[in-house]
Amino acid sequence: MEYFDCLVIGGGPAGAATAILLSRAGWSVLVAESKVFPRRKVCGEYLSGTNWPLFKSLGVEQAFRDLAGPPVTETAVFAGGSSAFARLPQPRGQDNAYGRALSRQHLDTLLLKQAAAKADVRQPCRCVAFEPDGNEFVVTLESGSGSTTVRARSIIAAHGSWELGELATQRQAQQHRPADWLAFKAHFRQASLPPGLMPLLSFPDGYGGMVHSDGGLASLSCCIQRQRLERLPRAAGESAGAAVLAHILESTPVLRPILSGAELNESWLAAGPIQPGFRQCFQNGVFLAGNAVAEAHPVVAEGISMAMQSAGILAQCLLPHRDDIHLPEVRQRVASEYTSRWKQSFSARIKAAAVIAQWAMRPKVVAATLPFLRAWPTLLTWGAQLSGKDNVIASLDGA
Prior knowledge:
32% of the residues lie in helices and 27% in strands. Helix 1 (13-24) links the parallel strand 2 and strand 3. It has a seven-stranded mixed β-sheet with strand order 6-5-14-15-16-13-17, sandwiched between helices. The chain has helices at 13-24, 52-58, 61-67, 104-115, 226-229, 240-251, 256-259, 303-318, 328-360, 363-375, 378-386, and strands spanning 2-4, 6-9, 29-32, 46-47, 74-79, 82-87, 100-101, 120-122, 125-133, 136-143, 146-152, 155-157, 181-189, 197-203, 206-212, 218-225, 263-274, 277-278, 282-283, 286-288, 294-295. The radius of gyration is 21 Å and the shape is globular.
């Protein structure tokens, strides 16, 4: 039976980042990713400038610069027929370090390829079960070649939070609720979005955003409550994403000139329900990373940043314990340190995102605040700071 220091379930940004840092330090790491890359995924695609030190540590800084869209220097709020603009903050202590957007088909492939330089990456390969065996785990994997059993001294669940699964760390099926948040994304060609601008779109029972991504495409991502989506008019054969876009354009006419000559690139993507909030960093001996731990409302565009940075923090907590991570008391000690550092780094973003989301989904309230935001644009910049866009986690510099 094959034996590994660590099994990472999921090869997305959090799983790949953890695998890169651990395997580079000499850990034997197996990454089990159930999907085939490159793959499209619902995501805002923006990564703030706070990630540059981590990109350098992961060895992908230059590749990211070569692939990503233009630097994002300005934000805005679009509500009804009005708007307000403000500069985005730069990370503290850094100059010209603005964030940029990169589609998930490129980002995920880039990171997992980097992980495969030293880790054992199996794809498509699904983890279907893991059971404690003494102080270690026996893990069952399924792939096109059949079922395989391996042993691991530790497990990191980085499988995200949207997909259902049978593992104890995965989300279980729940009854649909009217207030569920559902997510949509599409790319557009020839959109008239000014380079460097990332506006927040306010519309009834939802919010969205746009940004220039790679390949000359503009990405539009949004969230809408199920109760509103179910009431939207839809022509025969029309996708839910197209109905949501019609809803946005009807209630936010200031966006219409930006998309008037744009062409949809491929189809709309949909996912959800998303579950904003904090869950657990450690569960029954298993460490969690990325969205499996928590989600901020996508309104603040910090999801991928939080996922990768949480992975960096977890790797730092694990690195000194390769020889004793299988001991329950050591795992518990590492889990306590990881949980404390996670909350210190991200709790404020989670709370700020929840407040901003409740504001953004009420366009009449937003429209009433726009005169103040135009008069004092630093209020918008301050909101971006609350969401973490200038807060570099110093310990990840040289992770």
